[in-house]
Specification:
259 residues; single chain; globular; 8-stranded parallel beta barrel; alpha/beta; binds 2-phosphoglycolic acid
């Protein structure tokens, strides 16, 4: 079954709304110059909340094929949750995706697999698609128990979801030791875990669900390693941090098929 690869740029806490508009505009021009086929590789930007309205205005007025989303969301619908943003607010802004359970949220905000699963469910209920992050820390990789560790995360995150919901979701495997460090997992390392995730989804649900779910690799993805990672049978995209802030570099990653 053919899965459409998805390259998403996670800007993290970078770029204000004016810079966001510039980046997305330049990205669209660059991808037009490169004759990028959006139906062959989906392109998503994930800016900070404060930029989303500006990105929406640009995408709608210029009829861009770039999708966008948010970096996190609340599990609550509304009310006394200072600092939180609801799924309804994000759908109103035209978001298609929400990243949930990024390792930085797990580390600095104590997010658990169960909470991440709840957030994913909320996102799906609102008609958007979650990009669910998982990945092991360095100690676990050194101990050689990374596959087991990530599969435990998968079991817990997907526990409350139906097969149809999982099929619509994106899973991002991001080994923590490779995030922002320049230390990319080898394509074999990345494939090992992404392949194991797909097998686990077939066991938990069924083969059709496993065949449909898209699994991204994330962690120091750059134009020089994107094509090799994407050539792996179970890697269907990339979640790109640092390199997504540089238009030319991100555009090269998106057009990895031309490399
Ligand atoms: P990086 O970040 O590409 O800067 O390593 C990836 C991520 O955290 O999503």
């Amino acid at each position: 079954m053919a899965r459409t690869p998805i390259i998403a740029g996670n800007w993290k806490m970078n770029l204000d709304h004016l810079e966001a508009t510039h980046l997305v505009q330049k990205l669209a021009w660059t991808l037009t110059d490169l004759k990028h086929d959006y139906s062959a590789v989906e392109v998503v930007v994930v800016p900070p909340f404060t930029d989303i309205r500006s990105v929406q205005t640009l995408v709608e007025s210029d009829e861009l094929s770039i999708a966008y989303g948010a970096q996190d969301v609340s599990t609550h619908d509304s009310g006394a949750y200072t600092g939180e943003v609801s799924t309804a607010m994000l759908t109103k802004l035209g978001c298609s995706y929400v990243v949930v359970g990024h390792s930085e949220r797990r580390e600095y905000h104590g997010e658990t697999n169960e909470l991440v699963g709840e957030k994913a469910k909320k996102v799906l209920d609102a008609g958007m698609r979650p990009i669910m992050c998982c990945g092991e820390p360095l100690e676990v990789r050194k101990a050689g128990t990374h596959v087991e560790y990530v599969l435990d995360q998968i079991n817990a995150m997907l526990a409350g979801l139906s097969a149809a919901e999982v099929a619509k979701s994106v899973i991002a495997y991001e080994p923590i030791w490779a995030i922002g460090t320049g230390e990319v997992a080898t394509s074999q390392d990345a494939q090992e875990v992404c392949g194991a995730i797909r097998v686990r989804i077939a066991e938990l649900f069924d083969q059709a669900t496993a065949d449909a779910v898209r699994i991204q690799y994330g962690g120091s993805v750059k134009s020089s390693n994107a094509a090799e990672l994407m050539a792996q049978p179970d890697i269907d995209g990339a979640l790109v941090g640092g390199a997504s802030l540089k238009v030319d570099e991100f555009a090269k990653i998106v057009t990895y098929q031309q490399a």
